């Protein structure tokens, strides 16, 4: 039997021109044509976003985007990460932003905020609202656990976070960035619900001396609403130690309802950006004077604590 | 201390060392003696090749006999590879350096020592600052392999600097070499058809083009700049991006399984990946290279990205090479927007 005969005999026996019994590509094409027609009738322009999305995919798949020395990927952050967070900030938490005019539109500043809510959603919400109001990316300083953990490490670097250490803070401030730090760290995130809005100890003031050395303003930031997203009823220290975590949370929904426990409660948020504390008028060498650093740290801490109390008085209720 | 007259370069049978020795000898006013146990694999130009083992005290005769005034030590092995096993590699790296330095210490004529060291001395861990300066102590000093050898070699060099204060001692910590035709473990790793990558991490890779590496070595050989210097491009390329540029699909491997997989790859003769390299490809590593620019004015011409682009251009196109990705995207676009085709 010759090659041509084999091919011929492999052809299905049906009259020419008759549709095949199942042509998936054809079916899909017809469906897409119908869908696009329907969309066009409803006045939805579908071609431009499509071209845009294809161009974006092309840039991602070719690797022709750029990241900075920290691994920050602005394209990914503005096109993927922030659009995912926006509904959470705007519709779920209904964040009310106050005092954004206190944050500089250019040049560096250190944003110091309270930290709460079991999972660090406050940092991501902060990134979203600042980008939406000022079109500036907030660079978060994060704990080493974030960078030791798979997936959070990757995501944190891509979205502009870096390790909370003096060197990285100074490097970012020198590069005219908005740097955010949560000096309470895990002590703030993992505190019981009964301690809500009570500021925990503020690290060792490393962030303040970095700001003083770089002579950049410090903006105290008070976030109300983050405490109620995952109210921490109890902590299981034995389990936490076994898993290498700073705490193992027990909330009204976690771990009882499994993955559902990750849905944050829709509390009402208010973020107050406080007036900047100038550091450029301090005498030279102030960054190495523990007394100055201690005083500035205290001033920041007190400002945040007082603002938290007054915001709580103004909020009508936890969820509205 | 004037210009170098007679320069001894070790490890000249290897690529970077050969390029450097050739470039130095091409300047004409300097006698360059190239030493290696293996015969040269590259054109050495005006370099006088001497077949000698630095582990053997006979190296002293070469140094004394030619009145060598500058020694550039580039004979450190990054992987056991052709040497045999890890113990041979360690012997070449550590014992070889000790023997060479002992000869240098004895030789009155030696006035300068340049060491090719590596970014590997910084180790790699999740607690690392984004860029190491020369002074930053490593958060997780390398415990094995090439990283540990490099740390030990630098320690011996500091010992010599103490005992012979009249000798100018310069250490260059080089980033991963990358560029057209570079043959290294990283290059071979990036060229695998499907690349195993630690799941959930994206290492920052900092590269150095061989042209820039040679230029940095020439700079510190020509002038007297004692001290330790990081040498690398200023930017970084994340591993995920490097793989996309290479068109290589990654396959995620949990961190805990990575050493076992590296072991399998070693036995299969595919790749030689010591544990400290796995850490570097998990957490990444960056060096702040501003000091060498401030002190010597040296600035790399190639960015990490350009160096990698040059490598990609000559590498085998991967499964997800640009043209294939483009074709797939084009057909996707025309499928989703049928009227656009008409």
UniProtKB/TrEMBL annotation, chain B:
Stretch list, region Disordered: 128-148
InterPro entries linked to this entry: Epimerase_deHydtase, Lipid_A_modif_metabolic_enz, NAD(P)-bd_dom_sf
Its EC number(s): 5.1.3.2
Molecular function GO terms recorded: UDP-glucose 4-epimerase activity
UniProt KW keywords: Isomerase
Superkingdom of this protein's organism: Bacteria
Domain NAD-dependent epimerase/dehydratase: 7-232
Enzyme class: isomerase
Cross-referenced PANTHER family: BIFUNCTIONAL POLYMYXIN RESISTANCE PROTEIN ARNA (PTHR43245), NAD-DEPENDENT EPIMERASE_DEHYDRATASE (PTHR43245:SF52)
Protein name: UDP-glucose 4-epimerase
Organism of derivation: uncultured Propionibacteriaceae bacterium
